[in-house]
Amino acid sequence: MATDSLGQKRAEFLALAGTAFNQMFGSDGQNGLVTFGQREQRACELTDEMARWLMAKHVGQDPSGETAMQRDCPICGEPVHYDSAQQAQQQVRELMTRRGKIEYRRAVMQCPRCRKIFFPPG
Q1: In this structure, is residue 1 part of a structural domain?
Q2: Which end of the chain has a smaller Cβ tally under 10 Å, C or N?
Q3: Domain total of the chain
Q4: What digits encode the pLDDT tens for the residues 79-111?
Q5: Could you tell me if 70 and 81 are in contact, meaning their C-beta atoms sit under 8 angstroms apart?
Q6: 48: domain range?
Q7: What is the pLDDT of residues 40-68, one digit of tens each?
Q8: How far apart are the first and last CA of the chain?
Q9: CA-CA distance, 40 to 119, in Å (whole number)?
Q10: How far apart are CA 66 and CA 84, in angstroms?
Q11: Is 47:53 a contact under the CB 8 Å cutoff?
């Protein structure tokens, strides 16, 4: 599973935070936001976006997907083995968080006996 370095993630996050700051304050310090409700709405939208980004990156680097994987098929009980998560197919999964939907890539295992596809726990 290809993961960005911590420095790359930090740079991406700081760029996202900079964009959020500009969308909040703009060049005039107000960015067209007049009422308290407008200000609150914009701040909530921007911080929710940053929270979703943090969650997606954190879930995407889960170390459980980095090592050899052996699980029993939940259907027939046959052992399914991959030397690494990179050998397994990857699928985009969606997860609903309190701040909205995030997407991340996750290893998928396929049983050679019954041919069922399943996601290993973790």
Answers
A1: no
A2: C
A3: 1
A4: 888 776 667 777 888 888 999 999 887 778 888
A5: yes
A6: 6-118
A7: 999 999 999 999 999 999 887 765 554 45
A8: 15
A9: 39
A10: 6
A11: no
